[in-house]
Amino acid sequence: MKKKKKQILIIIFLLLILSFLFLISELLISGEKREVYNISIIVRGGNSESWMIMKQGAEQAASEMNVNISFITLSNENNVKDQKDLIEREIISGADAIVISPVDYEEMREPIEEAMKKVPVVLIESTINTKKDIHYISCNNYELGENLAEELMKMGNTRSKIAIMGRNLNSSSIKDRYKGFTDAIKKSKNTYDLLDISGNEEVIYNEAKNIIENNLSDVIVTFDPDVLEIVGKVKRDFMYAKKRNIGIEIYGSGITSKGISFLEENIINSIAVQNDFNIGYLGIKTAVDEIKGNNVKNKTIYSTIINTRTMYSDENQRLLFPFIR
What we know:
Its main location: other. By secondary structure, the protein is α/β, with parallel strands linked by helices. It has two domains: 37-140 and 275-302, 3-Layer(aba) Sandwich (Rossmann fold), CATH 3.40.50.2300; 141-273, Response regulator (Rossmann fold, 3-Layer(aba) Sandwich), CATH 3.40.50.2300. It is 48% helix and 18% strand. The protein has helices spanning 2-31, 52-65, 80-92, 109-116, 141-154, 172-186, 201-213, 225-242, 257-264, 276-292, 314-320; strands at 37-42, 67-72, 97-100, 121-124, 135-139, 161-166, 191-196, 219-222, 249-253, 270-274, 299-301, 303-307. The strands form two sheets. The chain has a six-stranded parallel sheet with strand order 2-1-3-4-5-11, sandwiched between helices. Strands 7-6-8-9-10-12 form a six-stranded mixed sheet, sandwiched between helices. Helix 2 (52-65) runs parallel beside helix 10, helix 5 (141-154) runs parallel beside helix 6 and helix 7 packs across helix 8. The protein is elongated. The termini are far apart. The model is unreliable at 27-32 (pLDDT under 50).
């Protein structure tokens, strides 16, 4: 009996020791300092609201993956030299990876390929003319443009005059959207003029005002969210001045709070929207995977067309207001 009691005490003692060792090991593991990665995101535009949803997605990923992010806009809109200098600066400053939306399909190839020799690089939203194996996260931009053209024609535009207000045409995403749009329009009896616009808000406002006041087109289309917002302002101001609705229709892409408001008021007819939140999120996730040497694949992001009638669906509300979840 005494022998059995002694054996039980030994077993209990051993179990206590094992439990203690397990607890110590768990504390040591949980106490280990997680490595923090520094990732720089360089977009191709200025400090515009249109990039903020993408930034929200990047910040969400950063909070989950122990990442410090620097979200960097350009001092001048779509400035190649500015973007080249920023890549060099961020690498020198110790960035573990670069996530970038390239300004120019051709001219950003060399600086990005050079950067790839030093740190992982992930392309978001736009790409470059390269044969290198570089990860790219975007929607199908050609298809987005094509879908917007189909939306315009579904709305009854079969023989309309279309003014396409183009900006940033050296960016692959913008170029592909216009290509998809114009290819689809060419199959119809609609006609279009592509206006390569540049300049500040006042210049763009006056260009749109001239089109609307002089009834030069039935439809205005742009794939630049900031230009879309300006065109919406012109139409709104013209309607208020005339105290009546006007027939010109507006179609475009991208999300700003003013653009959403104009869509709600039916000043803008339809917008093509990609999931910018996911682009920002997956840009950071892909960069972290590359730093760790994990296998990653290119990802095509969802896009859709939203109009006044469909903007209140749950799915479209998540695209328009991803930070309200």
